[in-house]
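Lab meeting, action items carried over

1. Structure of the three-component assembly. Owner: GW. Status: complete.
Input record:
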Amino acid sequence: MKSQDHILDEVFNHFLKGSKIFRNREVLRHDYVPDNLPHRKEQILHLGEITAPALSGSPCSNVLIYGKTGTGKTAVVKFVLNKLTQKAKELGSTVNVCFVNCRLAGTEYRVLATLCTNINIKVPFTGLAVGEIFDRFKENLESQGIIFIVALDEIDALVKVRGDSLLYELTRINENLQRSKVSIIGISNDLKFKESLDPRVLSTLSEEEIVFKPYTADELLDILMERAKIAFYNDVLTEGAVKLCAALAAAEHGDARRALDLLRVAGEIAERRGEKKITETHVREAQERIEHDQVYEAIKSLPTHSKIILLTAYFLSKFNTDRSVTGEIYNLYSEICEQLGVSPLTQRRVSGLINELDILGLLNSRVISLGRYGRTKKIGLGVPRKVIVEVLSEDERFRAIFNYKPKYLMALPE
DNA sequence: CGTCCACAGGAATGACGGGCGG
DNA sequence: CCGCCCGTCATTCCTGTGGACG
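Predicted assembly:
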């Protein structure tokens, strides 16, 4: 224990001495809203025009905002709403804005509770029926006589899990309000989100639409430079490193979030090594680490049988090159299940799980036809074998299995 | 050119667990 | 607090199918 305290002391001291790399790490977090949003002028102006009527006490149109992750949707909305409240304060007009992340809130109740808190209604954390809290929300809103702009971020997540009933109620609320009005800004990562909405909700909600396209490598570069000026000390960041961050993120749907993560992690790697500059090497390492961590987490959170299927694919790829089709997987899977003392699922179910793993990228599968010898799916591991060992060895149920020699494969040459 | 393999993958149904309304 | 209902996971049964083989 003593020696461990000592180790920590070192870490703390090093930290307290201050970083030689980071001036302000905060600006690289993706929830940070910068003062300047490069390449989003058009969207800012558009949203500004839409929300402007609120300043003169008129309700504004509902908006639906689309775009993949890391295209600046959240930042633009927060930015515009901040400016709007600022302006409203100057003018003394009664505009309220509320920004809710629906995925984090999780349930309709908590979304509504957040809205209530925002307009100074006290509500219990839990215990009320959703209808009840909605009524209180409506009554209080009406008595206050305000224009209320509600931004619902990651709205697709809520609708997918809980349905669109909350949206339905919210889009209809104005019909029963005289003195107050509610406007909704819906933000969605999912481009197909519209299809899952009730047409009535959709038509009310998407009076206006703004689409956010992925950033190009050049645009990402501008964004990174902007933040890097604040985040890092002068001359720490090499030009090659930033460009690489931008290029790597552009290759992956133009995701600014990914670009910022790359830059931050690269900085952290350089810092930990006590180096003075962030180089392309650091960025590449950052890329590897981020990808590794994502795969690691994905595997770790898998249900047991999916893990066993991965394990099966692991053995097949280790002992054997070319024969991993559904039937092979299933036979070996059954043997491993027996070895682990778990009862195996049916082939139908395993086939489904293989498809899920394929979508996650942990397996690669494609249907092939062997003509006379049937039609099947060829399956391979989508990640390095060592990651499988690394993750599953942490689970005591699987620890011993890696030394196991599957009978099913022993008949074959290694 | 028809057959037939070895599955794919859809639909219906059942078991279970957790949340919601009364 | 209890029962009901709904979503999830899994099974069962099923029809469909690309192409080598004969």
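2. GW to write a short summary for the group page. Key points so far: Chain A has three domains: 4-21+215-299, 41-211, 302-411. The two ends of chain A are 46 Å apart (CA to CA).
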